[in-house]
Task: inverse folding
């Protein structure tokens, strides 16, 4: 099956610093990638939809200036958490969607655990 | 717009017993339905999906789910639970292929020996 990777798998940073998380589709080109956030013991909440070569579409309540998303190529999307604070600590999961194919679906990365001290 | 309701945040079964995890959805368009499993500190693994066609969908690890339009349900079942099935299970819906998924709150499955 299709493989999506995330890097890093976990990161600890100090409050006020910025953290970049990479999401790569390893064996297919993804025109669309999605970023989700999962708090402990909770479900995944969609943060934004990222299309290659265009600006990301953010869900209501997600600060686009805080969570910068760049989809520079068909295999890479990055999420940068700027000026991170402890409340940004969470599990961030990306997914990549293959183009076309009526029965296709999203492929999820393994997630990145962010802890802000 | 779509939404998902998973009935029961926690389900406990004995090893070898039937597993039934309930999921009801709401969708203004024909839904695409999914079940994912998540182990601690890991990403999501697709168990099965329904897009069109046969309403009984078989997935990995012996799981299956049946799409019932009249009941707006997509319950997940497995005839005989195994210890390794203990995990968090998420039901999700989307309006079409390749679009963002809307997830339910999840159901924690515990399996006792």
Result:
């Amino acid at each position: 099956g299709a493989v999506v990777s995330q890097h890093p798998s976990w990161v600890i940073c100090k409050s006020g610093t910025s953290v970049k998380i990479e999401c790569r589709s390893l064996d297919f080109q993804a025109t669309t990638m999605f970023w989700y956030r999962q708090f402990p013991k909770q479900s995944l909440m969609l943060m934004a939809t990222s299309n290659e070569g265009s600006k990301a579409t953010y869900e209501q309540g997600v600060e686009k200036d805080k969570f910068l998303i760049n989809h520079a190529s068909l295999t890479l999307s990055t999420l940068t958490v700027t000026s991170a604070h402890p409340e940004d600590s969470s599990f961030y999961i990306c997914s990549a969607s293959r183009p076309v194919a009526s029965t296709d679906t999203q492929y999820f990365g393994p997630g990145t655990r962010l802890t802000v001290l | 717009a779509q939404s998902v309701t998973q009935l029961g945040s926690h389900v406990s079964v004995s090893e070898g017993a039937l597993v039934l995890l309930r999921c009801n959805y709401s969708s203004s368009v024909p839904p695409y339905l999914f079940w994912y499993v998540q182990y601690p500190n890991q990403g999501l693994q697709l168990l099965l999906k329904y897009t069109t066609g046969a309403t009984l969908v078989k997935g990995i690890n012996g799981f299956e789910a049946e799409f019932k339009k009249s009941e707006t349900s997509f319950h997940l079942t497995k005839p005989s639970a195994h210890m390794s099935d203990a995990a968090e299970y998420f039901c999700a819906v989307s309006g079409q292929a390749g679009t963002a998924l809307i997830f339910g709150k999840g159901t924690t499955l515990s399996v006792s020996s």
Q: What stands out?
A: The two ends of chain A are 37 Å apart (CA to CA). The interface with chain B takes residues 6, 32, 34, 42-46, 49, 91, 93, 95, 97-99, 101-106, 108-111, 113 of chain A (CB under 8 Å). Chain A has a mean pLDDT of 90. The longest strand of chain A covers residues 44-51.
